[in-house]
């Protein structure tokens, strides 16, 4: 697969009125959107390829009908725990300085329900081997609410990884890795 480094792929978790949310996103980002690469993944998930990187924190404040925004950073099989662990640890290490006292991370899972505990513990173990303390933030629900994300300071001291399980990315969307069954996105403001 050829990677187009001049563009970035983002996901949007849509609010109560998905049609209005999509219209708002397209209106706000109209100059940056690659028109042929606008895809609806499900009723509440919208994917768009943009010409350049955007400030998701600023955009989140502008969009009233969008629950979450994130950049698609990888694509891997949830059944391949080792590859998933390596991918997530690599992303965490690239995001934070090695001297950071503690890194917080959590997962939001859309689609098929999976037990993420094995993956989360593998990530914690790998970070510990690197000398990095970490905390896995969990919730009773498969999706971390904005309250859980804010209360646990995930966006200030860590990251929320959003996993889309058993979704296939529509043709035309370019991803940074070979396709399988889970797409991991970073949601960090």
Present the secondary structure layout.
Blueprint: E1 8-14, H1 18-28, E2 33-42, E3 45-50, H2 56-62, E4 66-76, H3 81-95, E5 102-111, H4 117-129, E6 133-137, H5 146-151, H6 154-157, E7 158-165, E8 182-187
Parallel strand pairs: 5-6, 5-7
Antiparallel strand pairs: 1-3, 1-4, 2-3, 4-8, 7-8
Ends distance: 29 Å
- Uncertain runs are 1-5, 172-189
Structural class: alpha+beta
Adjacency order of strands in the biggest sheet: 2-3-1-4-8-7-5-6
Question: Tell me about the biggest sheet?
Answer: 8 strands, mixed
What is the residue-averaged pLDDT? Answer: 80
Following the backbone from N to C, one meets helices and strands in this order, namely EHEEHEHEHEHHEE
- Overall 3D geometry? globular
As a percent range, the share of strand residues is 25-35%
Query: DSSP helix count?
Result: 6
Helix content: 25-40%
Q: Please give the number of β-strands.
A: 8
The radius of gyration is 16 Å
Structure description:
The protein is an alpha+beta fold. It has a domain of 86 residues. Helices cover 30% and strands 33% of the residues. The chain has 6 helices and 8 strands. It has an 8-stranded mixed β-sheet with strand order 2-3-1-4-8-7-5-6. α3 crosses α4. It is globular, with a radius of gyration of 16 Å. The N terminus and C terminus are likely disordered.
